[in-house]
């Protein structure tokens, strides 16, 4: 323990402890018994006789609470107060009473503390609250006498009683292997990691899994300690000490906000409440609006479903505890929006009383039971109880970390290619500042979802600590805006219950605690709109500043009022809250539950709560936004990809990057965003520039830094594991596969250029293009002839060919269509798909040279020129698709177009084949000089940027002059907008696949060629040098993507 007390200071603190928890007088004990005679299970005598100092470690426990909750600069101030209170003159200065507090009788000491509760001087109000917390939280947390006296059945530090229903199938797995100091020291010399991930929560766990799955070396460093499931604490106090920041609760500098955060392996996902809510549509609409539709609402919803399934989030297996049942019943009676909360427990019965300090059954699917297990299977290494103190940088580039092994004090330095800071919104900005970053937004814009507890006492036992935790949510009616509140049920055990209501004297508090088993708690959580908060550090401790806005305070109060109404109509007879200035409420005995909402006295009391305003007991378990992403360093701390503006290869991969008001359903959106970045790590995560299709952003990041393209649509889930104890963005990655990408050397590019055969693509005599320059209207002989030509080509090459033939209704009657699928290696697990359509528009004399004779010819050339290199089996096969029926039969519409693409996407979806597609590259409108390509999807931006880079590297082998003598300009000009984000506005064969979650690279020039959909789209409009350049570009692209060696041709 850092804080040491002198004898005088200890005597003053003991006097305070024995005031907040004081032995009652005979008269007071009689009053306690008379008031609670029906509480048969409560030992009222033991409760009456208990004192704060009865527990042998009472002083030590109280000072530990101060050490954890306060800042070093405050320690000396508190000790000075203790010194003053131990003297006559000092007590007079603080209280106006000419007697040392240590010499006062209990009644006078109590009067002093109660006067501070309502003092006009803020420091006295803060001392009243702090001394109460220092006395009551440890007192009811560690004293088995007090815990037993109020009827709480669990003895501190001992195994809990068997639940009513045992989990049918425990999921406890083997322990993780944590690196020893000796093993870690050896790695300093022997290894350069591909990635070091700082933090193991929703963001870090997902990122580690995805990078490790790519075959890359990963080291995960966690500040907290790792516990196997069976080692988690059996009660709230021992659990808080093990797995929470500052052993459970720390406060803002102003003392206006208590903060709760996980500090263990798995981070917030280990201590969350298993709740997995999906964000409301209005929240998604806000994200889309604030990001100019960078956020893809529909894609996000699909990713949420993927993550929901991955973490086993469902309402199956839920049976509600008494308090959750009452919240549901009361909300329904009042017409409030109420629903069951999906639990990430795989549908198993989970009657866990203390899951918020770790799931002893291993049922809850946090990162330690999902993503980190995946990382472990792919060779990732883990080190716990190790604090990263600095990210190592050189020449503006991150290259490793320096850290301290906490138990031994050993300093270690590890090298890596990339560093991902994912230690949470409290720690990540401090780490970046300690590493030399100066961005003004680091540590700013903290969002917290302020919360407060209200309690109702019922005529019979409700046992708030028993049964599944947090299974029902009520959305508080809010007519003004979407920054409203939610009501849920926390699992409140004695230590938290003791500080949940204002202390109004020793007898009053013991009266309240005697009714502990009959009490139901609701937690009211607000979606903050404009409160001001930030995070920093003071002498190694977190320093949070928080000032709640008037709007957010009104939101909380509105939630309190509605919560009390729910309690009232379900039979609560006494109502408690944290406003010091407003006394608790008791219904008159004649007022029936059904009549309570119309009771004049009750409504007058609610009006008083509204007038009083801001609750005194406000806390948060949702911490977000301290390294927000954005368009430039003037408005954000990180880029839209999560990479810091100041240091290359240094990324933020947790809820810090959230940029806008977050939904209370955060977790679904960093597990879900991670996922839930999909997440992606920047599990699209969930969390942050905000295209919640970070899937692409992180594809880009990992490609740039590792050469790893990540696939599958991971969208930045925000935190749908929900506002559980750590509702911060759980960025979870959910791509199904990862493929490496190798850059070709200049010599290899030269070889590809030398092996070009432009004559095959000549528009007059080329054997691959000339046969396609004919009318190809569906159902005509020439259409059939072109199909046979394509089939014959692949038959000659020895490829596997499938025909997807079907009949579909069209405006001119039923038509037969046939898609052609040519696969080099059908046994491969994954596919790189390039596609074009081979039919032409139903216009007499229309050839469609660009639309799409040339794209088809380029695919045929690709297969022929690389066929020799493609013979060696690999994980990824090249697959070429020729769509039929792209053109309209009469007039383009949703129903009269892309017949073949619709059918094939649906067929492959039913056969679960879409999951094997890493990316679908669609070619269209190619062959005229100087096309300009844009990127339409963030998920494949990394690939688009690679093509632009490849064009630059091929410039020495390029045709720079067109057939008519014009200069051929870059097809991927650097001045083009990086993201066009218009992939759904342009109808083409990609849409049915895009809608099913396939990553799309749509290579279609814009503006369209002048000849588009006219009779001028024939051989005369084609430019052979441009076609030759495209042919070389696509051959080099496929070689790099599939890691082919051109020297073997």
From TrEMBL:
PANTHER family: LONG-CHAIN-ALCOHOL OXIDASE (PTHR46056:SF12). Residues 819-1037 form the Peptidase M28 domain. InterPro entries: FAD/NAD-bd_sf (IPR036188), GMC_OxRdtase_N (IPR000172), GMC_OxRtase_C (IPR007867), M28_QC (IPR037457), Peptidase_M28 (IPR007484). It is an enzyme of class 3 (hydrolase). It holds the Pfam family GMC_oxred_C. The chain crosses the membrane at residues 78-100. One of its GO terms (biological process) is proteolysis. Residues 542-657 form the Glucose-methanol-choline oxidoreductase C-terminal domain. Belongs to the GMC oxidoreductase family. Its EC number is 3.4.-.-. Keywords: FAD, Flavoprotein, Hydrolase, Membrane, Metal-binding, Oxidoreductase, Protease, Transmembrane, Transmembrane helix, Zinc. GO terms for molecular function: flavin adenine dinucleotide binding; glutaminyl-peptide cyclotransferase activity; metal ion binding; oxidoreductase activity, acting on CH-OH group of donors; peptidase activity. Gene3D superfamilies: FAD/NAD(P)-binding domain (3.50.50.60), Zn peptidases (3.40.630.10). Residues 241-451 form the Glucose-methanol-choline oxidoreductase N-terminal domain. This is Peptide hydrolase. CDD domains: M28_QC_like (cd03880). It comes from Absidia glauca. Coiled coil: none annotated.
